[in-house]
Amino acid sequence: MENKWAIILGCSTGHGAATAKQLASEGFGIIGFHLDRGPIKKDALKFEKEIGTLNGSRVKFWNENAADKEVMLSRIEDIKDLVQDGEIKLLMHSIAFGSTTNFFEPTPVLQRQMDMTQHVMAHCIIYWTQTLLDNSLLKSGSRIIGLTSEGSYKAMEGYGPVGVAKASLEAIVRQIGWELGSKGITANTIQAGITPTRALTKISNDWEEWVEKTKERNPMKRVTKPEDVAGLVSLLMSNKANFVNCSTIFCDGGEHRSL
């Protein structure tokens, strides 16, 4: 069996969890980072065990801040021990943690909130990619994937800092693909539609209204599911997708084309 692995930053819920499950069922080893506390931490532990039943226990989750460069550097040797003579075929950024507020009223966003959101939701993928390259863990055929949203180009209530970070993530991933394409390493972002995940409930108190409005405006009359995104990631892992690079790929049933 091919010794292939995926690193998923933000692996315990939502798109990251669905992708971990999908790829594990296809024989990928899964290395995941999540940052959960309390009862949610127990759910993550259960999910890690579930992944292990799909891929022969080739799974390791760390409940640590993947956006912290010190955490990243401290885990590289552990990652190398897990992968052995294999390769990291996927580095996926699925971290959904940032300040959900406006720039001005009712409470002006603070510089530290902007800086944190930018780093966690965009900049950290640069340093992960650099470190994996330095340790010969990314090779031709490896994929870098980030998750973006409509907020990268639309103004939305309470989404200012995150919207800026999503736009930055798209630019960063595009640049990664441009610089590493000659090595056969591709980088793309996936724009999912409104998805009822734990992250959505943190963005707005009106998230249920968002879901209902999305069902009305989406051409397929439903919201996006994490499994939809996981299916697209699976497709992109195929060698048939080797020439897809520096792109934003929509996985929203056509939602972005509707008002």
Keywords, separated by commas or semicolons:
Rossmann fold, 259 residues, 8 helices, seven-stranded parallel sheet, 45% helix
Topology:
Layout: E1 4-9, H1 14-25, E2 29-34, H2 39-55, E3 59-63, H3 69-83, E4 87-93, H4 111-134, E5 143-148, H5 160-180, E6 186-192, H6 198-203, H7 207-217, H8 226-236, E7 247-251
Parallel strand pairs: 1-2, 1-4, 2-3, 4-5, 5-6, 6-7
How would you describe what is shown here?
Helices cover 45% and strands 16% of the residues. With 259 residues, the chain is α/β, with parallel strands linked by helices. It has one domain (4-251): NAD(P)-binding Rossmann-like Domain (Rossmann fold, 3-Layer(aba) Sandwich), CATH 3.40.50.720. The protein has a seven-stranded parallel beta sheet, with helices on both faces. Helix 1 runs parallel beside helix 2, helix 3 (69-83) runs parallel beside helix 4 and helix 4 (111-134) packs parallel to helix 5 (160-180). The longest helix has 24 residues, at 111-134.
Strand-residue fraction? 15-25%
Which fold name is given in CATH as the topology? Rossmann fold
How many angstroms separate the termini? 47 Å
Helix content: 40-55%
Q: Which parts are unreliable, with pLDDT below 50 for 5 consecutive residues or more?
A: none
CATH architecture: 3-Layer(aba) Sandwich
Order of helices and strands: EHEHEHEHEHEHHHE
Strand order of the largest sheet: 3-2-1-4-5-6-7
- Decide which structural class fits the backbone: alpha/beta
Major beta-sheet overview: 7 strands, parallel
Count of DSSP E strands?
Answer: 7
Radius of gyration: 18 Å
How many structurally independent domains? 1
What would you give as the CATH superfamily?
NAD(P)-binding Rossmann-like Domain
CATH class: Alpha Beta
